[in-house]
Amino acid sequence: RELSEMDAEDELDLAEMEKLKNTEMACLEILKKYDFTEWELMEWSEQQAVFNFLYDSVMLTVVFGPPVDDEFFAARPSRSIVSLDFESFLDEEQAPPSSCLVQKLIFQFIESQGCWQKKYPKLCYLPQALFDISLVVNRCKILGEELEFLQRWGAKFQLLETDIKDTEVKLLFSSSVAFAKFELTLALSHDYPSAVLPFRVQTHIGNIGEKEIAAVLCRVPAGHHYLQRTVISIHQNLLQGPR
Question: At what angle are helices 226-238 and 126-153 packed, to 10 degrees?
């Protein structure tokens, strides 16, 4: 009887272990999906810490001040932060337009935050600073990948040309089936893809204009791959036949 009870307990333990293992795998998948760690530590000394982002094209230098009384960080006395300085190392003359756009949006976010030292005055705030910049870098990096996708595969969606100028993207659509040719210009910001993009339309052939584009865009929710989904939706709803 005792053996059977032990066997039953062992089976319960095994079932519980299997359940915990499955839960751990599910949690790891979620962490992987929402991992916005975009920084790489290059240097850490008593004077400063240096971090790189986005394939070494953005560098953050954090200069430390004196220790903060009665405060600890990672089991050591906490330090004040004197400055957080960002620097771009992107060669804009050699880099593709999509990379230049991504860089502009990242630095647009950095400048929009005002004085970083006031927002993150001590070492204990540094993880939050790294998370905040990583989140924007991650979003902008995905935007760059979307732009590269459209430049390579746009013809599948009747997209003739993807032109990037400053922080605007011009999309030239042409469809003989729909007898339409028009240019859609989208204004991008560092908030992408959390907000609907301002746009304007220039019609070359046919009758697809701002009203028709607005009717399609209002059904495309902001979020992951917003730009790609916008192009696909325009293709599906406006360029498949006569209007």
Answer: 30
How far apart CA 68 and CA 13 sit, in angstroms, is 48
CA–CA gap between residue 188 and residue 173 (Å, rounded): 19
First to last CA, the chain: 80
> Which residues 6+ apart lie within 8 Å of 73 measured at CB?
79, 122, 123, 124
29-58 pLDDT tens trace: 554 554 567 899 999 998 999 999 999 999
Q: Are 57 and 103 in contact (CB under 8 A)?
A: yes
Go through the domains of the chain in sequence order and give each one's CATH number: 39-145 (no CATH), 158-239 (3.10.110)
Collect the ranges in the chain with pLDDT lower than 70. Answer: 1-10, 13, 20, 23-36, 73-75, 241-243
- DSSP reduced 3-state for 77: strand
8 A C-beta contact, residue 216 and residue 233:
yes
Burial 3-18 (b: 16+ CB within 10 A, else e): eeeeeeeeeeeeeeee
Supply the pLDDT for residue 196: 86
